[in-house]
Amino acid sequence: MHHFPKEGIYADRPKDRPYEVLGRVRTKVNFPSLDGPREDATLCRNYFNKAAKDLLARAKKVGGDAIMEVRSVTFLIDGKSETHKSAECADDGEEGQVLAEGYAIKWKPVEEPAKNP
User: Fold this and answer.
1) Strand 19-32 and strand 95-107: pairing?
2) Which residues contact 98 (CB under 8 A, 6 or more apart)?
């Protein structure tokens, strides 16, 4: 079972400290969708969590500290794509797939307030 990372992943833009955007990172996770008693939504969420971990690992490879605006991506029949804050997966009956993306960020140093002499 994959758990969503507790640190380093932000669904939106972080507000707690300054950062620099390094660029977009994407990942794809394929998984067997014929996984016994598990429901589709549970499988999708589980592998979305794995994709989030993969995004964080990719960000760290390029010198990033975290990922912001993590989204799952789906492609429609007409070729357009949609992004979702929640886990959304494709499933052909035998194999499922989750596509995820976000922005790698690097924390900027926090400036200490000047002390009055």
Assistant:
1) antiparallel
2) 28, 29, 31, 44, 47, 48, 50, 51, 72, 87, 88, 89, 90
Q: Which of 106, 108, 102 is nearest to 53 (CA)?
A: 102
Q: What is the phi/psi pair of residue 70, to 5°?
A: -70, 130
Tens-place pLDDT, residues 26-48: 999 998 877 666 677 888 999 99
Domains belonging to the chain, first-starting first, are 19-107 (3.30.110)
Residue 77 phi, psi dihedral angles, 5° rounding: -60, -35
How far apart are the C-alpha atoms of 91 and 98, rounded to whole Å?
9
Please count the other Cβ atoms lying within 10 Å of the Cβ belonging to residue 106: 14
